[in-house]
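Q: What structure does this chain adopt?
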Amino acid sequence: MRAADAAEKVTRKNPELLSPYRKELLGLLAEAKEQELRWHLAVMVPRLPLNCKERQLVISSLNSYLEDRSSIVKTFALQGLADLAENDLSIRTTVIEILREATRNGTPAMKARSRKLVRHREHL
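A:
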């Protein structure tokens, strides 16, 4: 958990540091059960350069994270989806709808993050 936290913080400004670990991170995203690891992966993995197949895997994993019992995992999954949608027009409309739904029916953390993300994405 501490390593994931450190990696997430460092790669906010230097996302290229994740690239050598792409395969491992994608595997962890799909398999991780620990909520602390899942929430860090949810925001780190969208920083990777992804091919089409990998992007679909990430979208699928993040959508499954929206069903997690942890509000933090769900909130960070929303952030990850929004980050992916920023550079992928094909999912932007769907992600904005997911965010709008979270503003209506999510946990307080999900509602707050979703409102912020929707405002930002609608101006792109």
